[in-house]
Amino acid sequence: MERIIGLSKLQAAIDEAYKQFKSESCGTVDSHIPDADVNDFGIAAVLTDGTQLAAGEAGKPFAMGTIAKVPLLELLLTQHSIDDLLKMSGRCECKKHDKPSIAVSPHGIRATSAVQPVGDPDAKWDLIINNIIDLIGTAPELDDNLYKKLKEEVETDGTIDTIAKTGYFLYDDTALAIDLYLRQLSLKASAMQLASMGATIAADGVNPLTGNIVYDGKISQNIVASMAAHGPHKANKGWLVATGLPAVSGFGGGIVGVFPGLMGIAAYSPGLTEKGYSAKAAEALRFVMNKLDISVFGSAHIHFDKNK
Predict the structure, then answer these.
(1) pLDDT tens track for 170-189
(2) Do residues 15 and 42 both lie within one domain?
(3) Domain coverage including residue 205
(4) How many CB atoms are located within 10 Å of the residue 107 CB?
(5) Among 169, 185, 201, residue at a domain's last position
(6) What CATH number has the domain bearing residue 38?
(7) For a Cys staple, 276 with which of 62, 172, 233, 248, CB 3.0–4.6 Å?
(8) pLDDT in tens, 67-88
């Protein structure tokens, strides 16, 4: 079955979501970014043909936070097979690892450590950041203050010592892996940039804004499946049922979703719920999906018609 939806209806849904939720003052700004304005709010969508739609402050950069795990996963899937990654992650019965209790995600640190090459921080970072640029089509910026704050936090927390004591296995030097992971968390991108990244994934690795082939499209299904499994922070099951949109969130207030074959869509507002994801961004994306009555789990093949 095929459904054709006027592109104007998508823009209208985005505009309506913005108007409905922009005046709400909800959630608490994460302690890492105390200067963020809880009233900031933006929504953006990028279709797989490169069409861009937006409302509000869709161009304002904010901390990606753990959204950076999405391009990191894509890079790892490019370098390793899915079976090897399952073993390396500790999520298979044949090779388990105890997860230490530390200030930042141990899985994020391990994932960064697994990126090739090993032992060369400059080369590894160049690969990570250039991959993100290729996915987005433009460059994110590094928030130096946030990066320094996260560095101080892991030093106070004794993260390196805790990893050593628990025997948590990494594939590169511990300090190197932590530092590069913190840099990724400290990258700032806008809702429009994240929607562009989502559109590249939706388009099976072809950036619709640049036309460049970023990665082998076969791994897009693995990326989207991982996004669906994780969901916005601590809201994966309820979120997926309510929206039908695989998505992930970051402590900076962003949520980015991918509708395969159709679009990337993102929203931003720094006020977080108790579960740790943006309240207004979540409401906005849920509204758009429900207003259009679309879901990645639906049987219909969706098209947006620019003439309607």
Answers:
(1) 999 999 999 999 999 999 99
(2) yes
(3) 2-60+190-211+218-305
(4) 17
(5) 185
(6) 3.40.710.10
(7) 233
(8) 999 999 999 999 998 888 887 7
